[in-house]
Amino acid sequence: MSEYQWWHERCDGLGITTSVEVKLLHAEQSPHQRVEIYDHQSFGRMLVLDGYIQASQADEFIYHEMAVHV
Fold it and tell me: Phi/psi of residue 56, each to 5°?
């Protein structure tokens, strides 16, 4: 696929932006949202919906731990 590139997430209203160096693995437009999968050297695979990071392999344990105790 593509080479590593800089990806930016801008948080309007908070006055901050996040930038990470990632490699685009997959991108498509579903009927409901833009879906992108990136690879990051530290965070692993990252799920991005409509330009906002939703989850990464590095923070998977947080969701897994919660689901185990529900």
Answer: -140, 165
